[in-house]
Design a protein that fits this description.
Blueprint: E1 4-7, E2 10-12, E3 18-24, E4 33-39, E5 46-52, E6 57-59, E7 67-72, E8 77-82, E9 91-99, E10 101-104, E11 108-112
Parallel strand pairs: 2-11
Antiparallel strand pairs: 1-3, 3-8, 4-5, 4-9, 5-6, 7-8, 9-10, 9-11
């Protein structure tokens, strides 16, 4: 069982930045992959970014060059640095972890609006 606690969402103006964090209840070295999905109202859940236990990263085309996913093994935390935010980034962001099963955080709202 893996428990995930997210933090860092909020309201930001277009062009601004936010940093999301996801703390795991187990060592992230034991987790195959961690990352973030997002879901906007009326839309399907979309994979945004992930990082594997080997450090490989992958991003959705819509966020490449703007966002960076990283991990801190000592803190068992994965973070998503979101720069140059756009209104279309508005969504609920869900952290996930894959270790056999897939585990989910509770979700955090990101709103990009002037």
């Amino acid at each position: 069982q893996v428990q995930l606690v997210e933090s860092g969402g909020g309201l930001v103006q277009p062009g601004g930045s936010l940093r999301l964090s996801c703390a795991a209840s187990v060592s992230i070295s034991s987790i195959n992959a961690m990352g973030w999905y997002r879901q906007a109202p009326g839309e399907q859940r979309e994979l945004v970014a992930f990082i594997t236990s080997g450090g490989r990263t992958n991003y959705a085309e819509s966020v490449k060059g703007r966002w960076t996913i990283s991990r801190d093994g000592a803190e068992s935390t994965v973070s998503l640095q979101m720069n140059n935010l756009k209104p279309e980034d508005t969504a609920v962001y869900y952290c996930y972890a894959r270790r056999g099963n897939t585990y989910w955080g509770q979700g955090t709202q990101v709103t990009v609006s002037s």
